[in-house]
Amino acid sequence: GAGVSQTPSNKVTEKGKYVELRCDPISGHTALYWYRQSLGQGPEFLIYFQGTGAADDSGLPNDRFFAVRPEGSVSTLKIQRTERGDSAVYLCASSLTVGGWKDTQYFGPGTRLTVL
Amino acid sequence: DQQVKQNSPSLSVQEGRISILNCDYTNSMFDYFLWYKKYPAEGPTFLISISSIKDKNEDGRFTVFLNKSAKHLSLHIVPSQPGDSAVYFCAASAGSGGSNYKLTFGKGTLLTVNP
Asked: Engineered SS bond to A105: which of A9, A90, A91, A93, CB 3.0-4.6 Å?
């Protein structure tokens, strides 16, 4: 079956602009996650959705970052007033459930965001 | 402060030999550990995991060892193959703390297996 897909694969924007990054999870997966991977670092947790609601957004760096998942499937990560420090690969993952014993998170290929 | 540390940025081994990748952690609440493999331009792919109630888990050529007292885990690949060349990430989560969904990753180790 299809894995996690993310669009666009690359996004170049100018400082101060608004961007949206999209994630299509594996069909039937109720849990969805966003991570950010900066150069030379491992992925860092941003936010976790169970269904439509954001169950934990403690990893979002500030209020310029926001994510939604209105129908419990596709999710959009939104970044306002982008800064050069936002440049990173944004990874989305999904899992069948959460609460079961350690559901495996399956990652998409990521969106590489470059803020000029 | 890095809670999961992979102190070797890179490792090079010969095909057919053993690859040993190491990982240390500082958070005693971590009770579940995973290894992910990542090829360029792809997302991380789950490889193998281990719960803190075990000290070893094996899956084919891959074995993960956990030493809780030392807060150390390692991934052994035997025999190594050129297709194993990738970046390997160690990750951990704290299920008993109610945040088993939140993975904390190390910086990764680039493994190169030479033919």
From this structure: A93
